[in-house]
User: Fold this.
Amino acid sequence: MKHLKRDILLTAVSLLFLSCISYEIPVGEYHVFTGKQAWSEKEKNCAYKAISNIESADSTFIIFRKHKIKSMGQAQPLLRTILKKPKKRIYIISVRDSCSNPDLNFGTIPDSAKTGLTGHEIMHVIDYKSRNILQVAGMGIKYTWCKKYRRKTEWMTDSLTIVNNMGYEVLCFTDFIYNSPYVSEKYLKKKKKYYMTQEDIKRIIDSTDTKRE
Assistant:
């Protein structure tokens, strides 16, 4: 019960913080790149490559930001836009910056892995975009408290990313995480618990038309 109260409090504080974020997307544009650390052109190109592979991602308002986060990436609606129609909402994709870990962050992973990671998070955004506010809230609650639902969600997201021509990029990211000396045992345990392994990814690649010659 003590941990439950703590988690609820942290969630409430996080939502309050997110509601105050003043990120804006210039008129006529759909994507911006921000954060305390600048995005290189190569990093932006990796994100654009993922965008080009996913239908409607090029017309979805997304703020890509480098941020101090525990995971390598995360996606969420910008809270102050949550009451808008799904297509008019702004979504935030955060990737880990070097302040979180100087050895393991968005800048230190291979370019193909950058595309795989970004593609995975964009698929989460597309999922949010298909839901109304009550569905988004219900998803968030189930994702936080139901381990089976969280695993199912991440597996489905990986599967859709692979089907959208990024199977090898998802595999590259997963290979890197499993083989990097800078990945903690705690993070690796989480990866194994909720996400696909290399073998899982290879099976889907081999069973779809995304296999490259």
Remarks:
- The first helix runs from residue 2 to 20.
- Residues 28-207 form one domain.
